[in-house]
């Protein structure tokens, strides 16, 4: 089964509580590996999902613990799509824009980590509230072998 | 995200004490996120202002690769283990 991917989406739903992020990271790693992602790339995707969830908790739910975060993983051919949906206040992604890496100062690294992990990413506002972050990682043939 | 506020709370006050070198032992830290890194960048800035040496020791490969991804690996003094740094300290 390893490296063969999986049929249909795998969906995780978690509260907007930082205490559950370690479980989300562990599950993300297992799912990415099952999708055929190379372990080093899986580490980067774990970081990306973690940072995206952190943004949701901070900006979407303003550190409230009772919000919901839905994370779905879909594999189609060599394409792994990860969607992170929240039902919060719909923050402006520009407010969590990354900083110039040449500057040595705290903060602003989360978006850089997300961009480094994936091939494409886009935010969208959802009718009725909340946002969705769609990230796509192409799994190379070498990774799938 | 859940641990770094606690680390910050413990670490930053040490810079106000009469110390010459602060070593953070990361050997039992399997993972770090941007908020953890931000705490260490803030510490590094304080160390420069207060002329206190600041080092990170024992980072696992995964943690080190996250510093690398942030282009910060060469900014910090990083050692394979804390003992080597302590042994290299002049007696006070």
Structure description:
The complex is a heterodimer of chains A (145) and B (92). Chain A is an alpha+beta fold and 145 residues long. Chain A is built from 4 helices and 5 strands. Chain A has helices at residues 21-34, 39-60, 110-117, 141-144, and strands at residues 10-15, 68-76, 79-86, 120-125, 131-138. Chain A has a 5-stranded antiparallel sheet, with helices on one face. In chain A, a hairpin with a 5-residue loop joins strand 4 (120-125) and strand 5. In chain A, helix 2 (39-60) packs antiparallel against helix 3. Chain B is an alpha/beta fold and 92 residues long. Chain B has a single domain, classed as Transcription Regulator spoIIAA, CATH 3.30.750. Helices cover 43% and strands 14% of the residues of chain B. In chain B, strands 1-2-3 form a 3-stranded parallel sheet. In chain B, strand 2, helix 3 and strand 3 (77-79) form a beta-alpha-beta unit. In chain B, helix 1 (4-11) runs parallel beside helix 2 (34-50). The longest helix of chain B has 17 residues, at 34-50. Classes of the chains: A alpha+beta (145), B alpha/beta (92). The A-B interface holds A 18-19, 21-22, 25, 40, 43-44, 47, 50-51, 54, 57, 101-102, 104-110, 112-113, 116 and B 1-2, 31, 33-35, 37-39, 41-42, 44-45, 62, 65-66, 69-72, 75.
């Amino acid at each position: 089964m390893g490296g063969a991917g999986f049929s249909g989406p795998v969906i995780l739903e978690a509260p907007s509580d930082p205490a559950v992020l370690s479980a989300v990271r562990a599950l993300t790693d297992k799912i990415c590996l099952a999708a055929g992602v190379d372990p080093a790339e899986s580490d980067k995707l774990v970081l990306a999902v973690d940072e995206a969830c952190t943004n949701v908790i901070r900006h979407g739910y303003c550190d409230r613990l009772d919000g919901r975060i839905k994370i779905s993983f879909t594999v189609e051919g060599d394409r792994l799509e990860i969607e992170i949906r929240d039902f919060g206040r719909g923050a402006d992604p520009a407010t969590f824009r990354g900083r110039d890496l040449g500057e040595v100062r705290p903060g602003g690294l989360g978006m850089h980590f997300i961009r480094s992990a994936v091939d494409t990413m886009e935010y969208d506002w959802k009718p009725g509230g909340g946002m969705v972050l769609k990230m796509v990682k192409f799994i190379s043939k070498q990774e799938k072998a | 995200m859940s641990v770094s506020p606690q680390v910050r709370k413990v670490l930053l006050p040490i810079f106000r004490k009469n110390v010459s070198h602060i070593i953070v032992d990361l050997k039992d830290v399997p993972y770090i996120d941007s908020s953890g890194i931000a705490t260490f960048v803030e510490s590094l800035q304080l160390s420069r202002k207060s002329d206190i040496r600041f080092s990170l020791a024992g980072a696992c490969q995964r943690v080190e690769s996250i510093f690398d991804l942030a282009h910060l690996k060469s900014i910090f003094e990083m050692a394979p283990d804390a003992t080597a740094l302590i042994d290299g300290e002049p007696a006070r």
